[in-house]
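Need the bound structure for NDP, inputs here:
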Amino acid sequence: FAAIPEGFPIPGKTTVYDSSQKIVLGTVPLNGGFLIKTLVLSIDPYMRARMRMSTEKDSYSAPFVLGAPLKSHGVGLVLRSENPDVTPGKYVYGVSIPHQEYSVLPNMEELIFLEKDPNLPWTVYVGAAGMPGKTAYMAWKEYSQAKKDETAFITTGAGAVGSMVIQLAKRDGLKVIACAGSEEKVKFIQELGADVAFNYKTTDMRTVLAREGPINIFWDNVGGDALDAALEHAAVYARFLECGMISAYNTGYRGSKKLHYIFTKSITVNGFVVFRMKPKYDTEFYETIPRLLASGELKYREEVSRGLETVGHTILRIMEGKNTGKAVVAVAEE
Ligand code: NDP
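Answer from helper R.:
Posting the output first, comments after.
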């Protein structure tokens, strides 16, 4: 992490790839911890919020340290260990894996062991079977109060979180309206089973919601004007699931002008962050979702780039909406 961005994070300026650091795998001191080889790293929108001054507190995640590697969700293979509970050959999934080819980790804090379904690649375990999939599954269960034949509206429908939410809503028998920022993404949303799919850049959102609504459940990934449009077209007793506000991450938050609908329509608004839901749902998630992904009952789409040197470009791609699936960097084979 080389510099705090003012707007969009610029590869080569905000982040740099540094190949000068070397370690000797067989002798690097473990100090009671263990050595992992990084297999895959997740690139997620929240990483932009971590690119801030160390004194700014306006986020749930700690700022990245200037001059140190970025960190994100990732999967690693244990190569050596001085911890009797962590044996070489095991795979670990963590929320804060350093963006390095190899890392010495002190303990299992914020890590879990994973066993891979033979029909899924590791990349899926940071996407549909990882943090974004958990966000969708856990918050849908906890907050949607979904009832058959209700109508749900999902923004960023082709993304890692949104694509899972669409499928969960369809499995619960809802009518699903979803949008994304390109025709190609709209096609994917249709393949996921959405009843109404549109490109919010070329189609007026309010016209669609007026025709297809009112909305009983709004899954908000975007914030800003999309949130206001949803408030305008919400049904009485609607549930709003506030998952993210990516429209503001690079340009700053814009206050909603329609908040009065929360009381006039008796809307329930729940904001959430995935790590607070994990203690309740993690076991159930791993028992349910990887199996459905492996059998094809749930679909996923990824955009995998290879090598740590692609991290900066991948971060910018998701901020610009150019990613065509869950953004993942594959660092090494097993
Ligand atoms: P995606 O895979 O959906 O990638 C980000 C997408 O956001 C882009 O592809 C783009 O899609 C869309 N986007 C980017 N800029 C804008 C903009 N200005 N206005 C509208 N859409 C924009 O990411 P995720 O599925 O990983 O994340 C989706 C949301 O969920 C984010 O807000 C993220 O912060 C949030 N999140 C929240 C979690 C929680 O615990 N609360 C956990 C994980 C994610 P398009 O082409 O459709 O515009």
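Comments: The first strand starts at residue 34 and ends at 42. The domain at 1-127+301-334 is CATH 3.90.180.10 (Quinone Oxidoreductase; Chain A, domain 1).
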